[in-house]
Amino acid sequence: MKFTLFGEHQGGEGNVVTFANPEVLAFYRTLPFNFRESVTSSAEAIRSRDPRLAYPILRPLLQPKARVLDVGCGAGWFANSVSHHCGCQVTGIDFNPVAVERAKEVAEALGLSAKFQATDLFLYAPPEPFDLVVSLGVLHHTDNCAAALRHVCEFVKAEGHIFVGLYHKYGRQPFLHHFREMRQSGASEGALFARYKELHSGLDDDTLLLSWFRDQVLHPHETQHTLAEVLPVIMDAGMKLMSTSINNFAAITSFEDLYAEERKLRDVAEQRLERNQYFPGFFVFLARQGGGATSSLDTKPYVEHDPLIGYRYIPNVDLMLPRPGGGTYHFRSNSHGIRSSREYAFKKSPKITRIILCGDSMSAGQFVSNEHRMSEQMERRVPGLEVINLSLEGSGTDQQLLLYENVGLQYEHDIVILMPFLSNIRRNMVAAREGVDAKTGAKVLRGKPRFELVSGRLELRNVPVPFGDGGAVEGRQPAATDTPNTFLSRQKTRLSALPGMPFIKQIAYFLIPWEPFSEFRDPNSPEWRLMEAIICRFKQSAGDRPIVIVPTFYDNYVRYRMSRRYWQRFETLEQMPGIHVIDLMAHFRKLGAEAVRCFQVPYDMHFSIYGHLVVADALEAELRRLQLLPLSVGDGTGTRSTVIQGSR
Q1: If you classify domain 22-168+223-265+281-289 with CATH, what class do you get?
Q2: What is d(CA 625, CA 623) in angstroms, rounded to the nearest whole number?
Q3: Rounded to the nearest 10 degrees, what angle do helices 97-110 and 39-48 cross at?
Q4: What is the DSSP code (8-state) at residue 382?
Q5: What is the pTM of this model?
Q6: For residue range 308-366, what is the model confidence (pLDDT) as tens digits?
Q7: Domain boundaries, the chain
Q8: Cα 91 from chain centroid (whole Å)
Q9: Which one is the CATH code of 303-642: 3.10.20.600, 3.30.565.10, 3.40.50.1110, 2.40.50.180?
């Protein structure tokens, strides 16, 4: 037996249940929400406003060709905006055919490929899941918002996201109560409209204003909800809350704090009414589908393509992300696409000593929150010091040079710190590196620029870097990437995982130090000569500023007796005026067995929070030894403070 609450719906096997409200449909047929006077004015409004400005939290997800579903798309503002500005593959669904027809007309006027369908969301069955499902101000107009929310979660692929907006129980009530009192006192619909127009004075299109008034004041049915109510629903659907407007999309450190924050929304709404300001009591949240085998993969949702560097951090990102082994970390970038929780002026105060830090994921702080990184720790401990951390995860020293020349040199600075990871000697030689596709979890090749050393001169190749992934790893050429894929490398990985191997390695490497990067053996190897040339150009670009080179390594270098040929190579660079080289190994050895804690092993190879603290200690001590950090530095208050060498 089929059971339906709205219309004569067909579809699927077994019972068909819908919680669509027929009164809501009849109401919005007359005038859909967010409906403008004409197709032309709608198209112009879409051209003039990028949706990522309204919802910057979505910017990492609105990548070209991402599959996006807009549930309850109405007249198509969001769907067509995303299609126009972001190049996404967009589908919009709504149960109102009047609204869907307008959405199609606007898409045609803009020459967009967005698709629209008049259908009930409870009966909609997409041919394949979406990367992002958006539903703004729709689900609370159904007869069962929780069921609608669960259904929306079914449209998302593994690691995909939903972005949902609902009326808030506390924040919405003052607005509703205000207009309810006006009705009870005998106010006409015209008086209600005049009052709403007074509150929402920013809308200048009369048809648009009327559609908003009807939606906010006259609609026949809505429900209101809290985050505390919503969270169990999405968690039960396998989703994880990532961010919410309730705390201005800041990092989520405590649900109790979020619940306390949402209880304040009633006071905010009442204050807005007193000031004659529009406040609908609306909140949004971003959640990610956490299931699937790819949940532990780092898909880097915070990067976008860059034709020169290969990729870069997206500006104004604020995300809580999963960490290998459990837990989360906070990733935040500023308005210039630098991973930092603060902004930096291009011109610095004379009282400020400023460092530009260049490196890869070790110094970028992969899987470590912004505030725990070495750069932020140094800023906190040394008065008057600024450290602009330009490090980019997965980058080669060649990409770091291009970042310094095209971004770093815009900022007035005193010192350059370059922290090459040992494997960069291989990264510099290739035009692609292995990555993880954010949509499928599959390993793919991602293009990068590279230099060739021709008659002693660096010549840039593979620029502009092609957009998109370079294909599946299985189809790559052997020299296309620095990730070894030989039979021997695979066997070595298997052997390393066997029980007792750490003890065997300790004995074997004591007798014969292991050298993972044989390219450092010969000072005339093509790999070292290229690395040396890149660092020489770093110094040329830096001019009179000193460059401090700090080679970094992974945990085996503190566990076992490893070859030090890499240090012999880098140490020779001090023959160049203005270049200093720091040996981190000496500082790690002082820790003894504790040095292993400096890495996120066994879950990951990068520096741990403790490791960033140790490296910050080492950098501060070494910079003072080199007299690159003055003993007296500005403390930002207009006074001078004396800093004793080696103190904190």
Answers
A1: alpha beta
A2: 5
A3: 60
A4: S
A5: 0.57
A6: 999 999 998 888 787 887 778 889 999 999 999 999 999 999 999 999 999 999 999 99
A7: 22-168+223-265+281-289, 303-642
A8: 24
A9: 3.40.50.1110
